[in-house]
Hints:
The protein is α/β, with parallel strands linked by helices. The chain has one domain: 3-Layer(aba) Sandwich (Rossmann fold). It has three helices and eleven strands. It has a six-stranded mixed beta sheet with strand order 5-8-9-3-10-11, with helices on both faces. Strands 2-1-4 form a three-stranded antiparallel beta sheet, with helices on one face. A two-stranded antiparallel ribbon has the order 6-7. The protein is globular.
Amino acid sequence: MLLKAQDIIVCTGSKGDEEIILRALNIDLKQEEIIGIKGVRLSGKSTLAAVLSGYLEPESGQVTIQPTTNISRGLVSLNNKLGKPSLFKKLLKKQGEFYTSLTELKFQLPNLLVIDDADNYPEKELKEIINQRTKSNNLTVLLSSDFDLIDRLCNQSYRLEYGRLVKE
């Protein structure tokens, strides 16, 4: 699986008074990778998480996934800042399957899992999820303002600055 985001632009605000959240953002991600995206508070991490997971369409640019069939995407988010439904409210592990905190809704683990605000989850559980996903050759993206957490858990990391990604 290959995920490619090209020239992603996301704005907020009313027409003529927009604020650019993501500007001409580009990234190529490959299966089996654990990618970390670091960013300070309000840098656009949650917006990027929503775009990569398919919950938010950018104003410009595109996200493509190869192959185009049999690929599922998931978003782990404690805070639904964008007004879009998120796959999880809370991350819990129970008998090898994942559930929302409100209902015990079973689902298949997605090929691409985006974990927004990863620093809000216990590191032990994050490591367990990463280990399981690495064994099953799935792509995982963690976004966090805890730069040390990203350094400890991820194979590659990027920094989100002024709406653009910089590889570290």
